[in-house]
């Protein structure tokens, strides 16, 4: 996905940039309102992450003009506080959601997904591999004429596999991305979800292959 | 928080009192003046009639054949009789010797050239007597003739009584009218004050706008200082909350940066022992960040419960909103959130605090629940109280520790590796107690059941 991050704190911004890029997203960074406007008008983003307190103005002003310009790109506001009044004001101004800093990246990812799903913007996100069609926003997998709704962890696991077909993912890496760090799970917990995905994929020409001692990969038969 | 003002006197009563007292004094003075004036006028009238008859008697006195002759003119006395029912007396003296009339009339004193008047008791009543003298020459000898005419004062007294009655009535009327005006004037004079008090007390709890609208000149200083007080209050309130939020932000942002870098490092590290160390680090960072957040949440809750400002809060709407907000987080672990509400659970309270309390309880339920389980919320009313019940299937609280779970920093033995500060339930309990409600913890089935109880509003 393509993100625009509007945030003036450099340390915070670079951490977010690194982390989002690690997941394969394309991220542009604007440290103030002026550059945010320039970026937003120059390129199409899937999502804008907007800080409220910026050196040359209020993020809410950007939000207002963004909506007035009929720019449909969803906006998630990064707020430093969680007071109800703040939330109401940014949602009233047209923000799609907000997240209180500091946030958990899996939470941010989940919120982005929820926002994009709500916006229904996503024919372009539908992925085809072999004879399966996967819509990560709707959370559906189509095999032949069979449509399956995936649960969250199945969905994310499939997303990770399909982001790099034929690449081997080790069990620990998969656990990192699927479970939060305070969940005490063994690496074998991943087997349950691989098992479920295999069941869903039955009958298609796509399979999840176990690479002994290494991990798993997805590939066409 | 509102405390009745210490009342000392009332402007309304004082104003009315002073105005009524003033008009009473004015009315009394008016009545006295009228009566006095009437008495003087009546006296002058009687005196001039008496003197006229004295003069006409004196004019008719002549000396005939060396004798003083008096021809009492009828008109002189009938003039008096016409005026009233009063009795008339007269006396004529020549060199102090009685010529004719009533000898026992009182002594006129020194009548002087223009004549004199005297008021004296006579014939069991009171008379007014006019006296004048004239010198007559009888055979070359000058003889002083003194003529006195007297009249009883009943008519005069009756007139005076009548005038006093009318005067009194006018005085009382004046007083009643003035008192009525005093009350009306006071009421209308104090209306701007009442309007201001009404406008300020009708305000909602969050309304810290300055007082607007025209006020009389005399009240301008009051409104100006009220507005500056409101300004200072708003400033200090916003500063306290800003400080709490700013402090949380300052503490958590560096933690966030380090945590993110640790996560990135974890992706690149392969050796299991290094991975375990980094994971441990991330967990510790999460714990610190969460603890900092909750400590400051707790400070915010304490601050707000000390300045509790209540408004109507719909529990079902608040819960729905919060669930919508937490759903993406619960989805991450495939935990289903459901709400079910009945009735019209409206409570008086601080929405920010109630939301904070409920979020802490829900956070706990989500945190301790296993993947693929459900957290169910029920909102309703029972026995006049409104409640929000949160149930999970996470094994429940450790038996025997139920009673101390809401103490600060208390955590169940089953907390294990779950990140937590032990402040969540404390915050929830303090919020509810500030609202006059309570937090109950139970184990039901295979999970915990936490209920937030609110008193009937």
TrEMBL record, chain A:
Residue span, Response regulatory domain: 2-116
Pfam families (alphabetical): Response_reg, Trans_reg_C
DNA-binding region per Swiss-Prot/TrEMBL record: 124-220
Keyword DNA-binding annotated: yes
Top-rank taxon, per record: Bacteria
SMART domains: REC, Trans_reg_C
Protein name: Response regulator transcription factor
Organism: Ruegeria spongiae
TrEMBL record, chain B:
Annotated localization: Membrane
Reaction catalysed by this enzyme: ATP + protein L-histidine = ADP + protein N-phospho-L-histidine
Name this polypeptide is given: histidine kinase
Top-level taxon in the UniProt lineage: Bacteria
Positions of the HAMP domain: 187-238
Organism: Ruegeria spongiae
Histidine kinase domain: residues covered: 246-457
EC numbers on record: 2.7.13.3
PANTHER family: SENSOR HISTIDINE KINASE YKOH (PTHR45436), SENSOR PROTEIN QSEC (PTHR45436:SF1)
TM region(s), chain numbering: 15-38, 163-184
